[in-house]
Amino acid sequence: MWLVRQLKHVRRLVYRLRRVYDRRYGAQKFRRRLAAAPIKRIVVGSASKHDLAWIPTDRDYLDLCRPEHWAQMLAPGSLDALLAEHVWEHLTPEEALAAAKICYTYLKPGGYLRVAVPDGLHPSPEYIDWVKPGGAGPGQLTNGHQVLYTYRTLGHLFESAGFRVRLYEYYDEMGKFHFSDWDPADGTIRRSRRFDRRNQGGKLAFTSVVLDAVKPGATETSRS
C-alpha cells in the first residue's frame, strides 16, 4: 500500500512539473517543431500521447476554444492534418461547432481532421454510464463530458462546418458495429476496435465513433 501511494505521488509530481514546463516553454517548442516538419500534422488535446510523425500541443497555447491562440501560432490553410481523440465530447455544442470551424480554417484544402468520441449508440449500458455527460468511469469522479455523440450527430457537426465526412467506426441504431479500414499512420486512435486493450476475444468493450473530416480541395492531403 505504501508503494502504491508513493507511485501515485510521483505521478502527480511529474504531471505538475510537465504542466509548468508546458506553460513556460511549450509554445516555443511547438513553433520549432512545426517549422521543421515537412508534413504539418498536429494533435490537439493530448500532449502526452502521440505518434512520432505528429506534433503534440497543449491548451495553454493552442486551445480549441480560443481563436486568438490559433491566430498567434498558425497561418490559415497551413496544416496537413489534425488529430483529436476524445476531445470534442468535452466541449459544449456551441464550442464544438466553433472549434470545428477553427480546424477548417487552418487546414489546407484537402487536409483532414481525424476525430474520435465516445459512441452514444454502444449497446453496453455500462459503457454508456461511463461516457454519458456526468457519468463516471472506473477511478473517476466525473468524466467532464458535455455531449454524447452518435455517428449521425458527430457527422452533422463537421458537415455544418464545411467538411466532408468519412466514417470509419461506429454503432448504428440497431446495435450493429460498422468498421471501414483506416491507416494508423494517418493518425492512431487508441480507443478503437483494434487498439483498445479492453477489446479481447471478439468482445468490443470500448469503441469510439471514428471519422475523418476532410476539407474539400482539388488534391487531398497525402496520407503516408
List keywords for this structure.
224 residues; alpha/beta; 7-stranded mixed sheet; 5 helices; 7 strands; Rossmann fold
Can you give a write-up of this model?
The protein has helices spanning 2-36, 67-73, 93-106, 125-131, 151-160; strands at 41-43, 55-56, 79-85, 107-118, 164-171, 177-179, 208-214. With 224 residues, it is of the alpha/beta class. It has one domain (28-214): Rossmann fold. A 7-stranded mixed β-sheet has the order 2-1-3-4-7-5-6. Strand 3 (79-85), helix 3 (93-106) and strand 4 (107-118) form a beta-alpha-beta unit. It starts with a helix and ends in a 10-residue tail after the last strand.
Class by alpha and beta content: alpha/beta
Can you tell me the CATH topology?
Rossmann fold
Strand order of the largest sheet: 2-1-3-4-7-5-6
The total count of strands amounts to 7
Radius of gyration: 18 Å
Spatial gap, N to C terminus: 46 Å
CATH architecture descriptor: 3-Layer(aba) Sandwich
Helical content class: 25-40%
What percent strand? 15-25%
Q: What integer is the average pLDDT?
A: 89
Question: Residue ranges: pLDDT <50 for 5 or more in a row?
Answer: none
Number of helices: 5
The total domain count is 1
Main pleated sheet: 7 strands, mixed
Instruction: Just give the CATH class.
Output: Alpha Beta
The sequence of SSEs as H and E is HEEHEHEHHEEE
Shape summary? globular
Give a brief rundown of this model.
The protein is α/β, with parallel strands linked by helices and 224 residues long. 33% of the residues lie in helices and 19% in strands.
